[in-house]
Amino acid sequence: MSIPGRTDADLSERLLAGDKRALARGISLVEDDDPEGWALVQEVYPRTGRAEVTGFTGPPGVGKSTLMAALVRHARGRERQVAVLSIDPSSPFTKGALLGDRIRLSEHFLDAGVFIRSMASRGSLGGLSEASLQAALLMDASGKDEVLLETVGVGQADVDIIDHADTVVLVLQPGSGDSIQALKAGIMEIPDVIVVNKSDHPLADTMVREIRGILSLAPEGSWRIPIVRTEAAADKGIDELVEKMGEHREHIEAEGTLAERRRRNLENEVMTLAAVRLRRRLEESTRDDAGVRELLEEVVARRVDPATAAARLLERET
Amino acid sequence: MSIPGRTDADLSERLLAGDKRALARGISLVEDDDPEGWALVQEVYPRTGRAEVTGFTGPPGVGKSTLMAALVRHARGRERQVAVLSIDPSSPFTKGALLGDRIRLSEHFLDAGVFIRSMASRGSLGGLSEASLQAALLMDASGKDEVLLETVGVGQADVDIIDHADTVVLVLQPGSGDSIQALKAGIMEIPDVIVVNKSDHPLADTMVREIRGILSLAPEGSWRIPIVRTEAAADKGIDELVEKMGEHREHIEAEGTLAERRRRNLENEVMTLAAVRLRRRLEESTRDDAGVRELLEEVVARRVDPATAAARLLERET
How many other CB atoms sit within 10 Å of the CB of residue A107? Predict the structure, then answer.
């Protein structure tokens, strides 16, 4: 039996030693919002910060999972330990659409040097960003050389986990017209590396040209954003992608911005976690509360406006 | 001089009477987070709920503003009063990209029966959704028959204002491959009406077919989502779009779901406003606080994990 709020020492030791099952167990605990999971992260946190964390974002269907599989293969060829965390925000209806992609990573399931996990939103408010951050920290603590975070991002969606990455890679494909427009309009943040996957497509050249055009308009920084063509399903372009990711890391290390990024990311994470908890507390304390129901009825009846109702809710709380 | 927390009676009277300048002034007040603005919304709120509120979402560049202009023209032809609220989440760098679109609405600037306003994010946290909701309520109160809310949405971005609409229209164009994939993956919510704009494009048929394919997989509801082809720049397809929007409204009125939608929307708005304020309070109380800086330093030094730091922050607060 474990002491409440404390994890059994064995689990954290095994996790720190790189035991795959301990890592899986730890992630399940944080995913279930189990206090033991939080205690585990607390214990192993001093051992984090050593993994190279790369975030991959981009619209669904561009082949991110296939790209992850190719990158894992590449890393294993260099005997590096890798963990992949895939965040799946798709709705319960169509979940199959994204989960099917996971199969592409299955060749690595039996490899002790590879850990793969996917997390779905399950409709829990804010819970996903919280759990995924904790999971990424556990992966880092378990001694992985690389942590790859995969998330769907189109526009400025809640890509919180991406904010945990040292290097952000945007994956597009020929036909990613909406993302190009979003980049152009400044709605999508400029990443560190851009990948055009499925580059055997006849429109790949046009896409690369369009991206180049947009990047030429962006304010010039010290890092020139590379555009890498890959054909992940055929293992093409992966060497170059790994090289560019490495160059970006060297660049931010040399410049001193890696430490700065991590500081900013960690500070954001603290604030985000605090805000998520505040909102959850608010929702818990108001759910099934007769006074709140009455207040909401007043809003629906157009007697109390939403802002005033929100203010009253907060007064009740404090 | 106005009494703090109260608006001058004249402003609310003029706004309720449909005075364009009073409406503009009111929106500026809420945009500036002026207490007079909140008081104004509070006063006029009982007079809201009469406008037909339609939300238009979709990736940038598909021609939403041109479509708005065509819809305004159409509404004016039937002597209906219209207000348009455009939400512009683009970054300060590239602001021009979206603001340029506003020019397409300029033909209506001098028409007393039309009110057009655009709001940019200005980087204020949560402030945009708060201000835009208040602005939409003021437009409604000012006696407009229709309120058109235009926002950029790709994936599950923070399209809060769309949640205020009775009818949601998703605008795509041939080449909107990423949005199609997002719909397919269940990452983008299924709207009430889908528009394929720029339908003179050779790939428009393919796009319509793809959308139809996706919709056929969605769980069947009582409303069959129409796909309307428009060529907004040439005023084509607008009659049909207006007809479909009208049919949707009739459908939800007949079914009784309009009231239900509005109830759900208003309840969400109250919770969102409360959560935004909670977060703002938290940020204000921690900014420039030496204790918080120290705590964050502990996180950066990997001595205190982010979740524990968040919990400590919240303890300080309460």
Answer: 12
Confidence of residue B53 (pLDDT cuts 50, 70, 90): very high
Position A1 scores a pLDDT of 43
Residue A261 lies in a domain: no
- pLDDT at res. A9: 72
Q: Give CA B79 to chain center in angstroms.
A: 24
Residue B264: which of A303, A157, A306 has the closest Cα? Answer: A306
- Residue B310: closest CA among chain A residues belongs to which residue? A274
Is residue B148 within 8 Å of residue B57, measured between CB atoms? no
Tokens found for residue B184: 């397919």
Quote the CA–CA distance of B133 and B142 in Å, as a whole number: 14
Predicted confidence (pLDDT) per residue in A252-291, tens digit? 999 999 999 999 999 988 988 888 888 888 888 888 899 9
- pLDDT at residue A111 tops 50: yes
Same domain, B169 and B73: yes
Enumerate residues 6+ apart whose C-beta is below 8 A from B204. Answer: B174, B196, B198, B229
Assess whether A125 and A38 both reside in one domain. Answer: no
Same domain, A58 and A146: yes
Within a domain: residue A264?
A: no
Identify whether residues A12 and A103 lie together within a single domain: no
Q: State phi, psi for A187 to the nearest 5 degrees.
A: -90, -25
pLDDT at A60: 87
The 10 Å CB-count burial string (b at 16+, else e) for A189-222 is bbbbbbbbbbbeeeebeebbebbeebbeeeeeee
> Which residue range forms the structural domain that includes residue B302?
273-317
Interface of B with A in 49-108 (CB under 8 A): 49, 59-62, 89-95, 97-98
Rg (CA), chain A: 22
pLDDT (mean) for A62-80: 94
Q: Residue B259 falls within a domain, yes or no?
A: no
Cα distances (Å, whole numbers) of residue A29 to A19, A33, B101, B312: 16, 6, 49, 21
Residue B45 has its nearest CB partner, among A134, A266, A302, at A302
Does B16 share its domain with B109?
no
B239 plus B205 within the same structural domain: yes
Q: How many domains are there within chain A?
A: 3
CB B120 within 8 A of CB B152: no
Do A228 and A91 share a structural domain? yes
pLDDT score at B85: 92
Q: Quick one: average pLDDT of A231-254?
A: 97
Cα distances from B308 to residues A36, A135, A263, B212, B317, in angstroms, run 13, 15, 16, 48, 14
How many residues are there in chain B? 318
How much is the pLDDT for A119? 84
Q: Could you tell me how many CB contacts below 8 A there are between chain A and chain B?
A: 250
Of residues B129 and B3, more confidently modeled: B129
Quote ipTM for the complex: 0.86
Return the minimum-mean-pLDDT range out of A186-190, B42-46, B171-175: A186-190
In a domain, B248, yes or no: yes
For residues B141 and B19, membership in a common domain is answered with no
Task: Among B152, B170, B181, pick the best mutation site for testing chain A contact (most A Cβ within 10 A).
Answer: B181
Which residues, in sequence order, are CB contacts of B152 under 8 Å at separation 6+? Answer: A155, A182, A185, A187, B57, B58, B59, B60, B64, B87, B88, B89, B90, B98
Higher pLDDT, B20 or A8: B20
Residue B167 predicted with pLDDT over 90: yes
Q: Which residue of B has its CA nearest to A141?
A: B302
Sort out which chain A residues have CB atoms less than 8 A from B156's CB and list them: 89, 157-158
